[in-house]
Amino acid sequence: xxxxxxIAPFVDYGFMRRALVACFALALGGGPIGTxxxxxxxxxxxxxMSHAILPGAAIGFLIAGLSLWTMSxxxxxxxxxxxxxxxxxxxxxxxxxxxxxxxxxxxxxxLGVLIVxxxxxxxxxxxxxxxxxxxxxxxxxxxxxxIATLSIVTLALIYRPxxxxxxxxxxxxxxxxxxxxxxxxxxxxxxxNLVAGFQALGTxxxxxxxxxxxxAARFWAGAVWSLAAxxxxxxxxxxxxxxxxxxNFNLPSGPSIILTAGLVYVASILLxxxxxxxxxxxxxxxFHD
Amino acid sequence: MKKLALSRLTLSRxxxxxxxxxxxxALALPASAEPLKVVASFSILGDMVRNVAGSNADVTVxxxxxxxxxxxxPGPADASALADADLLVMNGLGFEPWMVRLAAxxxxxxxxxxxxxxxxxxxxxxxxxxxxxxxxxxxDHDHKGHDEDGYPEAAHDFDPHAWQNLRNGIxxxxxxxxxxxxxxxxxxxxxxxxxxSYITELKKLDGWVRGELAKVPQExxxxxxxxxxxxxxxxAYRIEFISALGVASMAEPSAEALARLVDRIRQEKIRALFxxxxxxxxxxxxxxxxxGAEDGGTLYSDALSKPDGAAxxxxxxxxxxxxxxxxxxxxx
Lengths: 289, 332
Hints:
heterodimer; A: mainly alpha; about 80% helix; B: four-stranded parallel sheet; about 15% strand
């Protein structure tokens, strides 16, 4: 019974295995990145960046059709351009980074929609924007896995300065002379991971798998490393459970995965061991017996 | 001298004759000199109108070659084309739900013709309907428009892709010819003659399709496509089309639906697999990899190809699709 519901689908169908592997890779890269986004109070910035990727992916699509590589490179270039321009503007003018980012990502988004709708008549925009995890190709798997590896290695290398910059930027500036470098390396990782997710789940859904587990982990763990590890585990479990829901109850797979992650998030808000609704408003009565 | 006088006389006569001729043109042709402005909702209807009207109409097509009418977003240029139009040709049966709204918004005084009027509509099965309901939530708003077409209220109970049966295509041509003649009675005979020769061509084509397909044994006549556009084709020419995604080309499938399809392909050992000219190829690649089925090529269903493509006309769609289908089904 449990075998039929939870194991058999992965044994019988290659596309279920691929989807699961894709979820695993996305969780490995996205978990730590999401954690840092939450810690750095940049949760909504991921949303902005996911929109900023569009025009690049659209141009890539127009050049070479549904080609994994041109769309990824296009998305990467557009995302990085927006991130760097926004960072640059906030450093050379009085505009704060969030405002300049909002400006550039909105321009980028509108440009993307404009390009897609005027250029191709045979483009179903939704197919470009919402990848479906059930049809992940070999190339896409390799790309997603490479990006996960790259992000973990890079994060390991810049872990200390990045953590210090999260909690005490003044200290970092005093000792090493500025956190701008680490900040930009981190931004590059965010964009790269969103491009990876874009191939498997579509930009918006990929962001869900990055942010929801990271926000949920906040209610269970305290240290940065444990937050990152827990959000990776939660992201992977959401992917696994979401795929099974999609299989057993005939639901579209992308939304099933993200909604599972959402359910984990809501449950964590209510029941988590740290600062959750339960611990704040229904503390255990220590003084009985 | 004499000669000169003579020639002057002929010259003036000639001039007079020219003037008379020009006058007679000016008097006799004010109605037909200006071609009718016809707007067709999608490329296949546009081709039919061009065949019937010849040079007597300027045809504007809203959803052009390779476009998808299911997810079409009209722009202001489309609304202004409608506003100036004399005649609107649409498919009906819920195929272009945006058309009635767009026509109302443009304030056009043009006459409508529903090309599918009078055909025997194919009911969608419960399963197909479910797939359809997923992404066309706003269908309900359009029911009124279809009521006027004389169909029972729920237009999305029916499969709109009726032109895929050539005998329905003939009904389409008759409807279009009738509407053109009514709008432009001076050229009614021209329209009738064009329609008759076009219908003869379609009848011959219908015979050819049946003859060609007869070469494939009945048990091999199974094909997988990405979108249920071939229901009428399948019914008319007895081929079983198994859909990968349901009626609408946009629905994201569930893992269960995909698994069921894969099971079926494996069980029935189907090898004929088709992408459409506008669907997401990645899903089909997945199915092909999972089952060992082969990509049979491209079938044209809802849209013509560009003029230099494989299926730039309604007739060419069948000339292209039938051999491609046969080659793929032979491998089953």
